[in-house]
Amino acid sequence: ETSPVISVNLPGAMKFGTVGRPIPDVEVKIENDGEICVRGPNVMKGYYNKEKATREVIDHEGFFHTGDIGELDEEGFLRITDRKKDIIVTAGGKNIAPQPIEGRLKTNTYINEIVVVGNGRRFPSALVVPDFEKLGMWCKSQSIGVSTNEEIVNHPKVMELISAQIESLSEDFAQYERIKKITVLAKEFTIENGELTPTMKVRRKVIESRYKNLIDEMYRDM
Predict the structure, then answer these.
(1) How many angstroms separate the first and last alpha carbons of the chain?
(2) How would you classify the pairing of strands 21-22 and 78-83?
(3) DSSP string spanning 5-34?
(4) Can you list the positions of beta strands (E) in 41-90?
(5) 150 CB contacts (<8 Å, ≥6 apart)?
């Protein structure tokens, strides 16, 4: 749709964590909801024989709505933070971009995957897939007698550890972005089960559907 570039990092004009500044003659604006919109000669005229689909993505001013959430910093560098379809809107109307939160929490040595949930709920919660090898080593160092993944994730001290690790990494998050409850899963996400894409990205809708009962349980008493 944008044939094929919007912005680029260049020698002498590069900033890590961004996709660079917009190229010449390309306008980028950020909508109130954070969506990145683009106008310029690189933007398509529309989808072939699909007028309705075209109107849905190109507004009356000629801006293409990318579906990405992001921001332009004070130096004009564009940063992409999430996909609009993945944004969580809490019951209180707060917008939460889950991917930056998940990315931060996945830097922890005991967390392999994490999926933030909470759309329409009072606060965000998370499904956590631990690194079972490292967590098993930690259990052994603490003389915790566990032998299966199920025993590991159901042990109170393991829950305390994971919760403490998440809390420590969330200190600079906004209060409404902080994970309030977690469920630690006893098995990893896999491509074969449809939970991961071939590029190892989490299929959020599949996870939310497959683990709906566990998600509901985290909010049952609220």
Answers:
(1) 44
(2) unpaired
(3) -SEE-BTTB--TTS--EEPTT-EEEE-TT-
(4) 64-72, 78-83, 88-89
(5) 186
Task: Look at the pTM and tell me if it is higher than 0.85.
Answer: no
Rg (CA), the chain: 21
Which amino acid would we find at residue 200? Answer: M
Average pLDDT over the chain, rounded to an integer: 94
Residue 4, preceding peptide bond in cis (omega within 30° of 0): yes
Q: How far apart are CA 55 and CA 51, in angstroms?
A: 6
Locate 89 and state its tokens.
Answer: 């809107």
How far is the C-alpha of 147 from the C-alpha of 165, rounded, in Å? Answer: 23
pLDDT in tens, 25-45: 999 999 988 899 999 999 999
Q: Record the tokens describing residue 5, joined without a space.
A: 């570039």
- Taking the C-alpha atoms of residue 87 and residue 91, their distance in angstroms, rounded to an integer, is 13
